[in-house]
UniProtKB/TrEMBL annotation:
GO terms for biological process: respiratory electron transport chain. This is Cytochrome b561. It is found in: Cell membrane. Keywords: Cell membrane, Electron transport, Heme, Iron, Membrane, Metal-binding, Transmembrane, Transmembrane helix, Transport. One of its GO terms (cellular component) is plasma membrane. Residues 18-186 form the Cytochrome b561 bacterial/Ni-hydrogenase domain. The keyword Transmembrane helix applies. Its main location: membrane. One of its GO terms (molecular function) is electron transfer activity. The lineage of its organism: Bacteria, Pseudomonadati, Pseudomonadota, Alphaproteobacteria, Rhodobacterales. It comes from Paracoccus halophilus. The chain crosses the membrane at residues 25-43, 63-81, 102-121, 157-177. It is a multi-pass membrane protein. The keyword Nucleotide-binding does not apply. InterPro entries: Cyt_b561_bac/Ni-Hgenase, Cytochrome_b561_oxidase, Di-haem_cyt_TM.
C-alpha cells in the first residue's frame, strides 16, 4: 500500500525504501548543473557565439570543475550507502536499471575528468577561478590533450542521451506503472517507510 504524507523528517543516509537527504541534494544539484552545462553548449552549437550562449558558456569551465568535485563526492557517498539503498528488483528489469545507473555514473565521471585531463596536459595554464590549478606544460602532453579532445565533447552528448533515457524511464514509472519511483528521490511521501 502506498504511504500518505507523514510529515516525518527524511533520514540523512539512504534506506532500503528511500534515498536520504544527502543523496537527494547531490542528485538534484548535479542534475541542475549538468543541464546548465549541456544547455549552454547546445545553444552555442545552434546559435553560435551570441550573448545568450556566452552567458552559459562563460561559466562552463568553472561549473564543470565544481561538478567534478560534486560527482566524486557522490560516488563516495553511493559506495558508503551501497547495500542500504532502494532495491531495483531481480531479473532482467533490475539488471537494466543497475546497468543504466552504472552507465550514468561512468559517463558523468568521464566527461569532466577528460576535460580536466586535457587542461592538465595543455600548454596553457588552467585557472578557472583566477587561481592557477594546473601550470602550463612545456611542451603540451600530447596524449592527454588528444584523449580530452576525443572524449569530452562526444561524451557530453552521450551523457545527454543517457539523461533523456533516465527521465523517460521515470516518466514511464510514474505514468504507466505508478509504482512510486519518483517519491524515492523527491518529496516526502516515502519518509515514513
Ligand atoms: C560534467 C561537466 C561537463 C559537461 C556535461 C560538459 C559538456 C560539454 C559539451 C557537451 C561540450 C560541447 C562539445 C561540442 O561542441 O560538441 C563541451 C565543450 C567544452 N568543454 Fe565541457 N563539459 C563539462 C565540464 C568541463 C570542464 C571541467 C571543462 C574544463 C576543464 C570543460 C571544458 C570544455 C571546453 C574547453 C569545451 C570546448 C572544446 C570541446 O568541444 O571539447 N568542460 N563540454
Ligand atoms: C540530469 C541529470 C541526471 C542524472 C545524471 C541522474 C542520475 C541518477 C542516478 C545515477 C541515479 C541512481 C541513484 C543514485 O546513485 O543517486 C538516479 C536516481 C533517480 N533519478 Fe536521476 N538523474 C538525473 C536527472 C533526473 C531527473 C530530471 C529526474 C526526474 C524526472 C530523475 C529522477 C530520478 C529518480 C526518481 C531516481 C530513483 C530511481 C530508483 O530508485 O530506481 N533524475 N538518477
Amino acid at each position: 500500500m502506498r504511504t500518505t504524507r507523514s510529515g516525518k523528517a527524511l533520514p540523512f543516509r539512504d534506506t532500503t525504501a528511500v534515498y536520504g537527504r544527502v543523496s537527494r541534494l547531490l542528485h538534484w544539484t548535479i542534475a541542475a548543473l549538468l543541464l546548465w552545462q549541456l544547455l549552454g553548449m547546445g545553444l552555442k552549437l545552434m546559435l553560435g557565439r551570441t550573448p545568450v550562449s556566452a552567458f552559459f558558456v562563460g561559466s562552463h569551465q568553472q561549473v564543470g570543475t565544481v561538478l567534478f568535485g560534486l560527482i566524486v563526492l557522490r560516488v563516495i557517498w553511493a559506495l558508503a550507502n551501497s547495500g542500504n539503498r532502494p532495491a531495483h528488483g531481480g531479473g532482467l528489469r533490475g539488471l537494466a536499471v543497475r546497468l543504466g545507473h552504472l552507465a550514468l555514473y561512468a559517463v558523468m565521471v568521464l566527461v569532466p575528468f577528460s576535460a580536466l585531463l586535457r587542461a592538465y596536459g595543455s600548454d596553457k595554464p588552467f585557472a578557472p577561478f583566477g587561481v592557477e590549478i594546473f601550470a602550463a606544460q612545456q611542451p603540451a602532453i600530447g596524449w592527454m590533450v588528444q584523449a580530452g579532445n576525443l572524449i569530452h565533447g562526444e561524451g557530453g552528448w552521450l551523457l545527454l542521451a543517457l539523461i533523456a533515457g533516465h527521465v523517460a524511464m521515470v516518466a514511464v514509472h510514474e505514468g504507466l506503472w505508478r509504482d512510486g519511483t519518483l517519491s524515492r528521490m523527491a518529496g516526502r511521501q516515502g519518509a515514513r517507510l
